[in-house]
Amino acid sequence: EADIYQTPRYLVIGTGKKITLECSQTMGHDKMYWYQQDPGMELHLIHYSYGVNSTEKGDLSSESTVSRIRTEHFPLTLESARPSHTSQYLCASSEITSAYNEQFFGPGTRLTVL
Amino acid sequence: GNSVTQMEGPVTLSEEAFLTINCTYTATGYPSLFWYVQYPGEGLQLLLKATKADDKGSNKGFEATYRKETTSFHLEKGSVQVSDSAVYFCALSEEEKLTFGTGTRLTIIP
Fold it and tell me: Comparing C-alpha atoms, which of A26, A2, A31 is closest to residue A98?
C-alpha cells in the first residue's frame, strides 16, 4: 500500500542535541515537502525538493537542513536543537506531473526541546 | 502574492447541524483549490478539491464550489457528526506550492 511515513512520531530532547526527523514515501513521488505547524495550527513551508539532489528553502526561514539522496527519502536535520524548535513537523509529497499539486501528508513528528 | 483567508474558529456545533466554513482567496492566476482535514494527532488528509471555476468538490458529505466571481471556496455539510470534529484547512495551489489558510477547529457535540 502506497503511503508516507514519518519517524519518530513524538520526540522529547534536550537543548543542543542533534536530531534527524525521517520521512519516507512509497508512492514514487518526485516532489517532497517539510512543513512546520505551530501551536496555533498555521502551516509554514520550510523546505521542499523536486527530486534527487534537489533541495530548496521554503517560505519560512528555518535552521534545519534537508537532503534528498533517494527519491523515497527526505530527512530533516537540526544540528543543535533549541526550545524555539518545539513544533509539529509534517512531511508531504506530490507527483511532479500533477497539474494540481495535490499533496499527500505523513502523520507528523511532534518535537519538544527542553 | 497568493493568500487564503479562512473563517476564524473554533466552531462548535451540535450533531446534525448544518456546517459552513468560509474560505476566500487571492491569487494572480487560476489556482486549484483544496480542503484538507486534520484529525487529532494526525497529518493532513485531502478532503476535496476543485481545479477550475464552477467545479464542485465533494467527499464524505462535504461540498465546496469554486466561485471565481467571489474568489471563494466555502466548505459545507448538511448534517455533521461527532466524527467530523477536526481542524479544516482551505488551500490553493499555484506555481507548484500550496498556500494554506490558518485552519478552523471544528467540534461537534452529541
Answer: A31
- For residue B32, list its beta bridge partners: B93
Q: Which of A35, A63, A64 is nearest to B36 (CA)?
A: A35
Judged by CB atoms closer than 8 Å, whether chains meet at A100 and B49 is answered as yes
All cell numbers assigned to A6: 514519518
DSSP state of A85: G
Amino acid at site A107: P
Are residues A101 and B100, on separate chains, in Cβ contact within 8 Å? no
Is residue B24 pLDDT above 90, yes or no?
Answer: yes
Which pLDDT value is given to residue B41? Answer: 83
Q: Tell me the CA distances in angstroms from B54 to B27, B34, B48, B64, B68, one per residue in order.
A: 16, 14, 14, 10, 7
